[in-house]
Each structure stands twice: as C-alpha cells, then as structure tokens.
C-alpha cells in the first residue's frame, strides 16, 4: 500500500474527530494485507475514560468486519485548526492493540506531518519486549 494514499485517508478522517475536551484531532488509516483501508478518528467523552483513539477506532472497525491481518497504519494528529503538523506517535494502549494483531517486524507505522513528510517505523521499533499471546503458552 502506498504510504501517501494512507496518509491522505488519515487526514480526511481527522476531520471527523470528536474532541470537545482536548481539541487534539487525530486521524488514522489502516491497510489490511488484502488491500482494504479502514479509517478511524479519536472520539472523546465527557466521562473521559471512554475516549478512544483514532488508531483503535480503525482497528476495531476492521476486526469487527472480519479483518485480522494488517500491513500498515498512517497516523496524523494535531490541535484543532493546525496548519502545520508534528508527528503524532500512537499511545501505549494503541501499541498494545497493534501487538495483538500485527507482526512486529512487518507491520509499518507511518507517522506523517504531511503527504510529503513522513517517517515509517516497524511495530517492533515502537513496541519492544511486548506482551503477546505467545507469552501465555
Ligand atoms: N489520541 C489519539 O487518537 N491517538 C493517539 O495515539 C494519541 C492520543 C487522542 C486521544 C484524545 O482524544 C486526544 O488525542 C488527546 O489525548
């Protein structure tokens, strides 16, 4: 999957971000191994803890439609009204959700400031020594 397509989708999705409390708007676009794209935005809540990140929204949409094999995710985030973006790395909870479904050395995490400026990490780089289902055997 072309990183630029995923980044564009992440920016498009960021517009739907629901953030009355933080004003920090995040969009994500997740590519399956089969080439489908599932998008997500962060959705906040007045009770705070039910808030869900953009990345998990995308993963849960995909898994709830039967997809469990993933190639890459693009993430973009910044304050409401931002004209320029810094990189928005996934939070620890989202990294743990990625760990459940993705190959650490193969899955790519694309952090983007724009469609032209981005960095690609493997999940293993961002989530070393992770706790996985293999550890429970
Ligand atoms: N957020 C995400 O959507 N993804 C991340 O990886 C970092 C944080 C959201 C959650 C909350 O709505 C806002 O950003 C501020 O933490």
Mind explaining what this structure looks like?
Helix content is 26%, strand content 25%. Strand 1 and strand 2 (37-41) form a beta hairpin. It has a five-stranded mixed β-sheet with strand order 2-1-3-4-5. The protein has four helices and five strands. The protein has one domain: 3-Layer(aba) Sandwich (Cytidine Deaminase, domain 2). The protein is of the alpha+beta class. The model has no long low-confidence stretch (mean pLDDT 97). The termini are far apart. Tetrahydrodeoxyuridine (THU) binds at residues 19, 22, 24, 26, 42, 44, 51, 53-55, 90-91, 94. The site of tetrahydrodeoxyuridine has 13 residues, from strand 1 and helix 2.
**How many strands appear in the DSSP assignment?**
5
Q: Mind telling me the CATH superfamily name? A: Cytidine Deaminase, domain 2
Q: Please mark out the parts with pLDDT under 50 across 5 or more consecutive residues, or reply none.
A: none
Distance between the termini: 33 Å
Can you summarize the main beta sheet?
5 strands, mixed
Structural class per helix/strand content? Answer: alpha+beta
Which architecture name does CATH use? Answer: 3-Layer(aba) Sandwich
Q: What is the 3D form?
A: globular
**Strand arrangement, largest sheet?**
2-1-3-4-5
